[in-house]
Amino acid sequence: MISLADRVLQTSTTGGTVTLQLEAAPTGFRGFVAAVGSGKKVLYHIDDGTSWESGIGTVTTGTPKDLLSRDNVRASSNNGALVNFGTNSKNVRLVLISDVTIIRDENLNLVEGYAAGAGTANAHTLTLTPAPLAYSDGMTVRYFAPAANTGAATINVNALGAKAIKVNGQDPGAGVMPSGWPVQLIYKSASGWFELLNPYRVGSVSAKTASFSIAATESGTVFTADATSGAITVSPAAASNGFEFTVKKIDNSANAVTIDFNGAETGDGATTIVLTNQYDAVTVRSNGTSWVIVSRVSTPIFSKYVQTADQTFAAGGTGNAAHGLPSAPTMYQPWLKCVSAELGYSAGDITPLNDHMHFVAAGTGYGISSVPNNTNIVWRIGSGGFYLMNKGTGGSAIITPSNWVLFYRAWL
Q1: Would you tell me which of 84, 236, 241, 294 could form a disulfide with 283, CB atoms 3.0–4.6 Å apart?
Q2: Does residue 93 fall inside a structural domain?
Q3: Residue 191 counted as domain residue
Q4: Are 412 and 330 in contact (CB under 8 A)?
């Protein structure tokens, strides 16, 4: 870090291009070491009335005199090189040097650390003015990406050497720096790379009606999946750091939308994520080796169900009600629907039944039993049929099967 201070002036009679020995400061001024401390970097200007030199140096406590090394000449009467001074007395000042001060453009806006990005998609280059002498911890640079990266990328500033660009310590995924994206980097000297401060997250919305793959270049995209025509499998590309996408099931069919991660990769420990209900959605982001669920929206319990086709039945009869779910339902409910008025019910009225509700009278069973599997709900009617309470009077009677149909509502 360059140290600044006011009223710093000393003289020197050291000749040549070597480190200067500094004389005592004149009255009213301070010496370099007294002003900023030993071992500090300073901006200096040396002038003997004929020759001059400005640059960056290091001041140290010396015996018998303090010292100023001339580390980097920024401008001089010797075409920008070290001046071979004579042994005559020279003024040595701590100053501000124009090409080392904060840069503003012609509109007086700060543009420090900015330059036009160049290079290729994964090997960016940058030329700053003034040219930095080396990479420093906390150094920041800004530029517009020359092309969309396709994976791991580097930045080479003023030919100081290519340094990796990382996102939280991991190589960036494809498309994290799109063409023209305003890239902001900060150098981390302990790791020897630049961290990307603003990876690209904004994406488009893409509608899908069948199984599809997600490329790393589609990071940030929201995919709406309509599984009306059949189950959908989503196959994302291999995990790469910062790769993110959202999938939302938008139809109300029983067909599932399944995110099947690449190979043995997992999302929060699972190799697949299944969306079963309308408007279920999940957003996942990769850390470079696996996936993290960032957010998940699930339809509230019991708010989404499937309903089977109507089933005709008879006393003692049995049948299979196909539920269309991807696996056996965890909960189901049998219902009766009136198709011809009976016991105070009108056509179209529905009423729920208690599964396995039955009683036995004189060896005759009344009620219904249901057994679900992965495909159907297998039902059986008691040999006596159903007793049903009259809608208007509260009395009970055995229903006439032809006046009713049976259906189920089922939930995963």
Answers
A1: 294
A2: yes
A3: yes
A4: yes
